[in-house]
Design a protein that fits this description.
The chain is about 35% helix and about 20% strand. It is of the alpha/beta class. A hairpin with a 6-residue loop joins strand 1 and strand 2. Helix 4 packs across helix 5 and helix 7 crosses helix 9.
Amino acid sequence: MRREPAPTAPFIRIAGVGKRFGCREEPTQALQGVSLDIPRNSFVSLVGHSGCGKSTLLRIVSGLESASEGEVAIDGLSPRAYGRDRPMGFVFQESALMPWKSVLDNVRLPLDVLGVGMPAEREARACAFIELVRLAGFEHHFPPQLSGGMRQRASIARSLAYAPEVLLLDEPFGALDDFTRREMGDELLRIWAERQCTVLFVTHSLSEAVLLSDQVVVLAPRPGRIQQVLPIDLPRPRDAGVRRSPRFAAYVAQLETMIFGGRA
């Protein structure tokens, strides 16, 4: 009799997570009963109306916020325990670079703080990631001298420099123009393909979510809860041709129907 392989535990498990803000007498329920399993090295996007708790959920996974109920486990550890022992990257909507430090110094900063290797090794590693995000030649520029897209590239390089197994991105391209945003989406796909890690990505762009993701999680608002999980079965690597395909358009239309109820 053939024995079935044991199921693989999810790399990130979100189980019954709820989050309340405010005073005990009149709390605001931001999230309620959120459960989600995320496989290792997958790319998962969170979409939904503003105020549905996407960023709050991301912060709970990162350990920056605590859940009011339920739990999150990353490779069997709580987010804070995981973050103490293993690297986790977080990219915010604003690049959060230190304006008085060069691109090289910003990217090297977490390596310096963590004391990774010798100084020459840290500089070489930072330069490698600057090259990965196609900022070679701008190592000694300062953030005010860069475009918004270039600053976000530097921010992504900084988050990747210490080889995180988990990369959390909170609307990182939201402040960019449409052309730069599309370019950054393509760059993120390329970087993720080269430096595999588990990505949880918050976006308001449905086409961006379809292009990038293995699955798209739709959150319903007030309180935030999972409405549906849509697997994206499109071939990788994904390029401009994928965007023009009928299947791509069908996935975007499906998400629009889920979120807007056919009123998009």
